[in-house]
Amino acid sequence: MTPADRFLLGVDLVKDPSVLHAAYNDSRGVTAAFNKNVLRVLARELDGDIDVDGFDHLAFYEAELQRIEMHLVPRRPKTLVLRGAALSVPIGAGERIRTEISRKFTRAGVERMLLRGGLRLDQWIVDGAPSFALAVARAG
């Protein structure tokens, strides 16, 4: 980056755990459907046999790590067959497949991360809640 360049980073901020839980475990099941789509894509792209409806969506907030984890959990033992990858993967009932980590940030944490990358925070712009932020940084 030149001295005139800026780096723009959008971040999801740390929120009350109940807010995060509600967002990732929505009552309409939108996030669960999104999560289960991982299995549909694997089956389609790797010529697989996967009983998508036999999995439950699990999402929870890890406060110490400031992140949401999403998992898929089979209700009974299964074998995931992925012919395109020449794989047959047994998975036990209740065994978790982690499908996503969604980090949440604070201003102090973003500043530390930018400094480790040789950048300095120039502007911090938050929405009204605050739920999200834009960090504008420059070299230095």
Topology of this structure?
Elements: E1 7-12, H1 17-24, H2 30-45, E2 48-49, E3 55-62, E4 67-74, E5 78-82, E6 87-91, E7 97-103, H3 107-116, E8 119-126, E9 132-139
Antiparallel strand pairs: 1-9, 2-5, 3-4, 4-7, 5-6, 8-9
Polypeptide structure, described:
The chain is α+β, with helices and mostly antiparallel strands and 140 residues long. It has one domain. Helices cover 24% and strands 41% of the residues. The chain has 3 helices and 9 strands. It has a 3-stranded antiparallel beta sheet with strand order 1-9-8, covered by helices on one side. The longest helix has 16 residues, at 30-45. It is elongated and about 55 Å long. The termini are close together. The model has no long low-confidence stretch (mean pLDDT 96).
Note the main attributes of this structure.
single chain; alpha+beta; 3 helices; elongated
